[in-house]
């Protein structure tokens, strides 16, 4: 197993927090603040509740760096323990369904859930504004039912949002386990793996540290 080195990460983030007037995207939201890490006992309890062992890169981040806060886009969704149950909090964090985390994520490459939907209604095809509005509403209901069907994202944890309902997630079960993916279904951009310049999959460690490097250059 490749060793994961998180040494100095909290210190680097603290340095960014001390710089005034940062231009880093999303910094106004997370303010370069990190929650404390999980204790080993808390991680055990979390994984027992989820029924899965988290991918090692994210798992070690939770233990050594933070349970959430400063990170890509508007930050890494933080873990919170509420009424004895662990959950992620953030815009779209509720898209994570703990009960389905053990089910394999069904895709290994780009997939657009809305690709086979009919074309949206054309105003010219409807004799009245009322008929067009009704057709448009019916189409949108169908679109949302298909595009945002939670069965498309079983086995994943939503970890951050980029605004406008664009989000990124971590695959925890199935062939893509450990890979970061983008959920761009809000604009019919589909689900797609995050890749580097060579086309290789990006895992949590690379995802986070690349953000930290770029933030240091921008801040």
Please give a structural write-up.
- By secondary structure, the protein is an alpha+beta fold.
- The chain has a single domain (9-113, 148-218), classed as SMI1/KNR4-like (3-Layer(aba) Sandwich).
- It contains six helices and six strands, in the order ααααββαββββα.
- The protein has a four-stranded antiparallel sheet, with no helix packed on it. The protein has a two-stranded antiparallel ribbon with strand order 1-2.
- α1 (9-17) runs parallel beside α6 (204-218).
- It is globular.
**Chain-averaged pLDDT:** 94
Count of the separate structural domains:
1
Structural class: alpha+beta
Low-confidence sequence ranges: none
**How do the strands line up in the largest sheet?**
3-4-5-6
SS summary, helix count: 6
Between the first and last Cα atoms, what is the distance in angstroms? 34 Å
The CATH architecture comes to: 3-Layer(aba) Sandwich
CATH level-3 fold name:
SMI1/KNR4-like
What fraction of the residues are assigned to beta strands by DSSP?
5-15%
Overall spatial form: globular
Describe the sheet with the most strands. Answer: 4 strands, antiparallel
Domain Knr4/Smi1-like: 37-214
InterPro entries: Knr4/Smi1-like_dom, Knr4/Smi1-like_sf
Protein name: Knr4/Smi1-like domain-containing protein
Pfam families: SMI1_KNR4
């Amino acid at each position: 197993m490749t060793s994961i080195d998180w040494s100095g990460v909290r210190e680097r983030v603290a340095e960014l927090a001390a710089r005034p007037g940062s231009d880093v995207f999303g910094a106004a939201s997370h303010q370069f603040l990190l929650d404390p890490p999980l204790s080993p006992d808390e991680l055990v309890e979390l994984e027992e509740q989820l029924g899965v062992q988290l991918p090692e890169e994210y798992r070690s981040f939770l233990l050594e760096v933070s349970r959430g806060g400063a990170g890509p886009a508007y930050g890494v969704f933080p873990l919170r323990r509420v009424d004895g149950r662990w959950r992620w909090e953030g815009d779209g964090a509720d898209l994570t369904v703990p009960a389905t985390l053990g089910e394999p994520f069904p895709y290994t490459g780009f997939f657009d859930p809305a690709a086979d939907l009919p074309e949206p209604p054309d105003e010219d095809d409807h004799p009245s504004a009322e008929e067009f509005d009704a057709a448009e509403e019916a189409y949108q209901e169908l679109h949302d039912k298909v595009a945002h069907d939670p069965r498309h994202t079983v086995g994943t944890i939503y970890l951050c949002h980029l605004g406008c309902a664009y989000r990124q997630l971590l695959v925890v079960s199935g062939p893509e386990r450990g890979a970061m993916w983008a959920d761009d279904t809000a604009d019919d951009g589909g689900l797609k793996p995050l890749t580097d310049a060579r086309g290789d999959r990006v895992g949590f460690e690379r995802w986070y540290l690349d953000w930290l490097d770029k933030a240091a250059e921008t801040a």
